[in-house]
Specification:
This protein is of the alpha+beta class. Helices cover about 15% and strands about 30% of the residues. Strands 1, 2, 3, 4, 5, 6, 7, 8 and 9 form a nine-stranded antiparallel β-sheet that branches. The chain binds a DNA duplex through strand 4, strand 5 and helix 4.
DNA sequence: GAGTAGATCCTCT
DNA sequence: GAGGATCTACTCA
């Protein structure tokens, strides 16, 4: 399906995260590579699913209505940092903060196709063999990559966690759009088409299509 | 295969 | 003191 091309991997630049349109960035993140390098263990995966959270005007966002708390203050900082938080007491959800200071945009990474360090991911998740549950869904992928809430505030331009472009390009018709998942509480904002995924990829969460 | 309950704990009210 | 940007296992059919 995808071919790895590690030689041409290039970290996404600060300016990539600084742009205004969080929905556009969410779409562009599909096909990019998320890499973690923690305690000398390198694991990575290609992003196949993402969701945009459009700051203060978005009821589904933690920053909805300008809410500002200890937990989400990182969203009010500059783009290019990680926002990780705990959900349902069990799951660590990994977000990419975008835009500039005081504009709390973020993108939730929901699905990855494993690339490097698959055996390490299996160890972390207590799985025996690779299947599509390893990095499908936001809770699973952060566990597989070793990401937890203590990584909130980590720069995505550093060595520990970063996003890279290895030259893979997705054609426009390979990308599908849908409403976001698990945000029914957000009223009509739950219907916004802010979720993007690679059509037919087995690491996309939700019902297979 | 579909539907539901339980896990589990940090964060905000 | 309540509830959440979820996942899994279990039931029932």
């Amino acid at each position: 399906m995808f071919t790895t091309n590690e030689i041409d991997m290039e970290k996404l630049k600060f300016s990539f995260y600084q742009r205004q349109d969080v929905v556009e960035i969410a779409k562009e993140l599909l096909g990019k590579v998320l890499v973690t390098n923690l305690k000398g263990i390198v694991t990575s995966g290609r992003i196949v699913e993402s969701e945009a959270y459009a700051g203060v005007i978005d009821k589904a966002s933690h920053a909805s209505g300008g809410r500002r708390t200890n937990r989400n203050q990182i969203m009010y900082g500059n783009g290019g940092f990680a926002y990780v938080y705990l959900c349902y007491g069990i799951h660590h959800l990994f977000n990419v903060v975008t835009n500039s200071k005081e504009i709390p945009h973020a993108i939730l990474i929901r699905g990855l196709e494993p690339l490097e360090g698959i055996e390490k991911m299996l160890l972390r998740t207590n799985k025996k063999k690779l299947d599509n549950t390893l990095t499908r869904g936001p809770g699973n992928l952060s566990k597989a990559l070793g990401i937890s809430t203590k990584h909130t505030g980590t720069s995505l331009l550093g060595e520990k966690i970063f996003l890279a472009d290895d030259g893979v390009r997705l054609s426009r018709n390979a990308i599908a759009t849908s409403p976001r998942i698990g945000v029914d509480y957000a009223g009509k904002d739950a219907l916004l088409p802010y979720r993007f995924y690679v059509k037919g990829n087995q690491f996309v969460s939700g019902k297979p299509r």
